Amino acid sequence: MTYSDIDETVAAELGRLRESIDNIDAAVVHMLAERFKCTQQVGRLKAAHDLPPADPAREARQIARLRRLAENARLDPAFAEKLLNFIIAEVIRHHETIAGHPEPQGGPDRP
Question: How confident is the model over 25-38, as pLDDT tens digits?
Answer without folding.
Answer: 999 999 999 999 99
